[in-house]
Design goal:
Elements: E1 15-16, E2 26-35, E3 44-51, E4 54-58, E5 66-71, E6 76-79, E7 81-83, H1 91-94, H2 99-102, E8 106-111, H3 126-137, H4 146-156, E9 161-164, E10 166-167, H5 168-176, H6 185-200, E11 205-209, H7 220-232, E12 236-240, H8 248-262, E13 265-268, H9 282-295, E14 299-303, E15 308-312, H10 326-333, H11 339-353, E16 359-363, H12 377-384, H13 388-398, E17 404-408, H14 412-420, E18 424-426, H15 447-462, H16 468-475, H17 477-483, E19 499-502, E20 523-528, E21 531-535, E22 538-539
Parallel strand pairs: 2-5, 2-6, 7-8, 8-9, 10-11, 11-12, 12-13, 13-14, 14-18
Antiparallel strand pairs: 1-5, 2-3, 3-4, 6-19, 15-17, 16-17, 19-20, 20-21, 21-22
Helix pairs in contact: 5-6, 6-7, 7-8, 8-9
């Protein structure tokens, strides 16, 4: 941080005290805010002193002892938010500022979720992945494993802290390919070795995406064996469960069985109850979460504050259709002998949804199909004269399965119950993107930009589902404890100075379904490792973030 100005800046921003800065007790003092320290204790008006990237004092502090002062009166001051369910990876190689995340007050990302991590890279898809990186982002593929990827991030520099899990799907593909079969003893041993290697080189655990191929092909026993390795290395198993709709309760039972037998600490990813016919299952689902905790299973969950999910459009087809590589999937979509099967399957999907107006095209790669972004499948069909199967098939083929969708399938009352539950934290389930450049394309889910401010503004300030201090504890300290993030998540002397200063009266998301590339309001200042990255709601361009590695 350059310390050159001797004049106060605009109201609320940092200012340098007159005179020499050498010998000051603090690099920064955050003055007069209502401190919520992350422990669950109620707010108290006091000051926070920062020195050399650490919090060194909390209490009344004279401004004269500080090189820089951040005025925080009428504001809440709390630990930086930890996004426990993130999908950022190569985006930070495109833009290290992590704008959509850090503008929310997020200071640490836990990535590698839903069974996917950009390592290890299977030989079978290496060239395809290399081509996609070049076409979409202009990046050269310069790694094969976690060590190489994390080194790329460190070389680039980061605005916020980055941690990751290793994806079960990525490991399975690298160890045994993408076929629907059980691993041999040798292949299972190879997978276990890959989990161990990834964790010993920094991964905080294992994630699964059991609704996606190839993770969906794994039997429960395979997952138990892999989780035994995670347990031995004190990691976390984060699971996108096998089902979140008709078989939600059975999927929860399987998840807890994996944890019970392996002893692993488990994270239920983006807990939801999908489709109207299943909405009544919410109370039983939360009861099973409680029962697991009472049994002694180390369980936590996460959720984003919206009623729509988002994933690849290809996932709307049955699992068997996606066996193998992308080429295999697209070949099946064009196989006339399979067309009626696909039509019947999509008819059932439409019945569950109610209408194809509940599914939006979020993103494509080609300019030709950009016109469809933000439109519902129903609108796209009317525009093209095609039925739903024909339109979806043709779009996926033309885009080589690189199509994002948004799908409305959840209920507001259930969302409030989930967010208010003591065992549920907050995760964006998105990536660190930007309104500008290649990361500003498409109509992505608003959760990329608005998750944490929306929870605070809509569900805490307006809906009052929980006291401020309870929700902030789940966003910070409890998240840090769950994943073993040392010296983060609390405002406490000796902890890293990841700090958010926000206005409790104005904090809210601004991203919408039709205009998602908008930063939230009310997140005034954000410090990462003691340096100010957001100042008066503007990005400073500084890159003080660390790549965090699991200590094994």
């Amino acid at each position: 941080m350059k310390k050159t100005s001797v004049l106060a800046l605009a109201s609320g921003s940092g200012f340098l005290l007159k005179g020499c800065t050498k010998g000051k007790d603090f690099d920064w003092v955050i003055k007069g805010g209502r401190v919520i320290d992350g422990s669950g204790s109620p707010p108290r008006e006091t000051d926070v002193g920062i020195k050399d990237g650490l919090i060194v004092e909390i209490g009344p502090i004279s401004a004269r002892r500080a090189s820089m002062v951040c005025e925080a009166r009428e504001m809440f001051v709390c630990p930086g938010f930890i996004d426990v369910h993130d999908h950022t990876d190569v985006q930070l190689l495109v833009d290290p500022k992590g704008e959509s995340a850090v503008h929310q007050g997020i200071t640490t990302l836990m990535s590698g979720n839903c069974g996917y991590s950009p390592f290890p890279i299977a030989d079978e898809i290496y060239e395809e992945f290399k081509l996609d990186l070049k076409e979409q982002y202009g990046l050269d593929l310069d790694w094969r494993d976690i060590s190489g990827f994390l080194q790329c991030l460190e070389k680039q520099g980061l605005a916020l802290n980055y941690a990751t899990l290793v994806g079960h799907g990525s490991i399975r593909g690298a160890a045994m390919g993408f076929d629907d079969r059980e691993p041999t003893a040798e292949e299972l041993a190879r997978m276990k070795g890959m989990v161990e290697e990834a964790m010993k080189n920094g991964a905080f655990g294992l994630s699964s995406g059991l609704e996606y191929t190839p993770g969906s092909y794994a039997k429960t026993g395979e997952l138990i064996e892999l989780c035994r390795v995670v347990t031995q290395l004190s990691g976390v198993y984060a699971t996108h469960m096998r089902d979140e709709s008709d078989y939600l309760l059975e999927a929860l039972d399987e998840s807890f069985q994996i944890a019970r037998v392996s002893g692993v600490s488990i994270q239920i990813s983006h807990l939801k109850v999908a489709y109207p016919s299943n909405w009544s299952k919410i109370d039983e689902a939360l009861a099973r979460l409680d029962q697991a905790a009472e049994e002694g299973i180390n369980v936590f969950a996460d959720r984003y504050p919206y009623l729509a999910a988002s994933t690849g459009l290809g996932s709307i087809f049955p699992i068997w259709a996606m066996e193998g590589t992308t080429k295999d999937f697209l070949r099946r979509l064009q196989d006339k002998s399979l067309e009626q099967k696909f039509r019947d399957y999509l008819a059932n999907e439409e019945k569950s949804l109610g209408s194809w107006d509940k599914v939006l095209v979020a993103s494509v790669v080609s300019e030709k199909n950009r016109i469809f972004e933000g439109m519902s499948i129903l609108e796209c069909c009317r525009r093209t004269g095609k039925d739903a199967f024909e339109f979806i098939r043709d779009l996926l083929v033309e885009e080589r399965n690189r199509v994002g969708m948004i799908i409305f399938m959840m209920k507001e009352e259930n969302l409030k119950k989930i967010l208010a539950h003591p065992l549920v934290g907050v995760g964006c389930d998105g990536g660190a993107i930007s309104p500008e450049g290649v990361l500003g394309k498409g109509k992505p889910h608003p959760r990329h930009y608005g998750t944490f401010p929306r929870v605070l503004g809509k569900y805490i300030r307006e809906e009052k589902i929980l006291p401020w201090e309870e929700m902030i504890s789940k966003m910070t300290y409890r998240a840090a404890v769950k994943f073993g993030l040392s010296k983060r998540g609390l405002l406490k002397p000796g902890y890293q100075a990841d700090v958010v200063v926000f206005n409790p009266e104005t904090v809210i998301d601004r991203a919408t379904w039709t205009n998602p590339h908008q930063f939230p309001q009310g997140i005034i200042h954000v410090f990462v490792n003691g340096m100010k990255v957001i100042e008066e709601e503007k990005h400073t361009g500084r890159l003080p973030g660390y790549v965090l590695r699991k200590r094994v």
